[in-house]
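R.M. (postdoc): so does anyone remember the format we settled on? I'll just put the structure tokens first.
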């Protein structure tokens, strides 16, 4: 059989296009086309934006109330009470450690290097006593490491 002619090929294409368009009616295709044109022109964008904006409310004024009488001009009076003195509490810096031997330590821990060649003994501090500028001792207690 011979190859179809160009006219026959075009007729077959036309028939295929018409068969695919048969599912959608002409009115629907026109509506789709019009919506695409309206979208290009931006007509629906303005309507969408106007829908989002709440209409401005009309401001109503309050009814006026007649004045019952004004207070006479007067100068205020009062008894001043100064705030209480801020004192006590807190730590006067600098903190200094007076006696290293007052330190206490948790049980010794041993850390080994990954290759096992070295082992380190660490004694984590449990309590350190510091003295502030007012010669008051402050204890720093530390938790035992896990």
């Amino acid at each position: 059989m011979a190859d179809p002619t160009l006219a026959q090929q075009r007729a077959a294409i036309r028939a295929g296009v018409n068969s695919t368009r048969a599912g959608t009616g002409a009115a629907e295709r026109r509506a789709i086309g019009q919506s695409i044109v309206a979208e290009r022109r931006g007509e629906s964008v303005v309507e969408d934006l106007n829908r989002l904006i709440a209409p401005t409310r009309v401001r109503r004024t309050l009814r006026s109330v007649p004045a019952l009488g004004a207070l006479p001009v007067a100068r205020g009076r009062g008894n001043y009470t100064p705030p209480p003195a801020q004192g006590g509490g807190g730590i006067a810096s600098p903190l200094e450690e007076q006696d290293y031997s007052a330190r206490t330590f948790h049980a010794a821990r041993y850390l080994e290097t990954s290759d096992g060649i070295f082992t380190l003994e660490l004694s984590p501090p449990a309590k350190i006593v510091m003295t502030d500028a007012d010669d008051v001792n402050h204890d720093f207690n530390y938790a035992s490491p896990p």
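R.M.: ...and that's the designed sequence above, right after the tokens. Also worth knowing: The beta strands are 104-105, 109-112, 119-122, 125-131, 137-141. The radius of gyration is 46 Å.
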